[in-house]
Amino acid sequence: MKKEEVPQDESNLASANFREMVYAVDDDGKYTTSLSTGWDPKKIALDNAIKEIEERIANAKTRVLNNETSPIEYYMEVHKMDLPVLASYVGMWQWRVKRHFKPSIFKRLNQKTLKKYADVFDISVEQLKNIDAGES
Fold this sequence. Notes:
CATH class of the largest domain: Mainly Alpha
Strand content: 5-15%
Helix content: 40-55%
Number of strands: 2
């Protein structure tokens, strides 16, 4: 595409004052870089991804409030992590972290283990124990 044809559609990137570098052809027919605020297909994909993340967070919060999972799973979703990433950050086996998702196990975790999770999520242990205390 030509440099003057680089899309400048409204997107989540534009609203956050971000621009993406793309390659385009200049007037001399040579490849050059240009900045784009986004284009509609990318905006749709990004909006869908954000919507899915928000749904996963809401679902995790409901599950915590219904005592079906621990706040660890909720904060994992809030911080856009998955089980392998969280396990590596806290330095534990995945099966052990997954076990900590069980409310009965979570309630028995010692202060040192809770602190590991709280540090990874950049919250206090009190916020970890009570998801409502951790929200802004």
